[in-house]
Amino acid sequence: MNNLLVYCLCLDNNLLTKVKKLNYVPVGLGRDNFSEEWLRDNTKINISEKNPFYGEHSFHYWLWKNKLDNITDGTWIGFCTYRRFWNQKKDKKNNDTFNIFKDSLKEVPSEWKNFDTILADKIDLTNLKWMKVLKYGKLALLRNPKAIFKDGRNIRFNFDMFHGNGILDKAIELLNEEDKEDFRKFVNTNTSINQCNLFICRSKDKIKKYYETIFEWFEKLEQIFGFNLEGYSKIRIYGFLSERFLPYWFMKNSNCIEWPISFKDLNTQSV
User: Fold this and answer.
1) DSSP letter string over 68-99?
2) Averaged over 44-60, what is the pLDDT?
3) The model's pTM
4) Which of 100, 130, 149, 204 has the greatest number of C-beta atoms within 10 Å?
């Protein structure tokens, strides 16, 4: 029996047939133009209006409040998007040759048996071209001169460079005491990050605890950042913060293995 349940998060109703072909659960985010065949984050208890700011986490909130308790214990519960797919095999395929219908995750790999959480493979934050660092990171360099050298380009520097100087530090100050210093250390010492707000986990208790932690934090963050934001890097600030916090939290609280994801737009793939 394949106890894998993958939710595929989409913005376009026209992808329904393709998502079903993958045997994934089709999820429509933040809009009213999805048919009844979709799970929609704007039904039941929801925060769908926050999707432009929270990104994928508007559905995570919906799942937490409306569905999670009814999922069979021990099920691997996972998430992908219409542009980010888990590979079936540990050996990552080149994005150009990756075929969504042939190469995406379909069953639980044997390599997962000793783990309870799967995180997307890391991206290296040190491989920025120097011209990009100068273009986007002048203020961030003033706060972190060590970032002149590759080994100084940690998660905090990367966040400052692309999303605003000091925002991550302000956000960390609003974290619970259990995570505040550990997360601060995480962003200051790591120069790579598990990407894209993606995970797969077979412990509902851990997923619930993550949701309790992240949404309590978001509620506090709303008091200082609000929603009157402009520009993609600011509007999605909650999603970008969770992208850094999610891997930290699961690595701290569960037994994780990294697994490759591929970047391929489902809109471009023929059935």
Assistant:
1) GGGSPTT-EEEEEETTEEEBSSSSPPPTTT--
2) 97
3) 0.94
4) 100
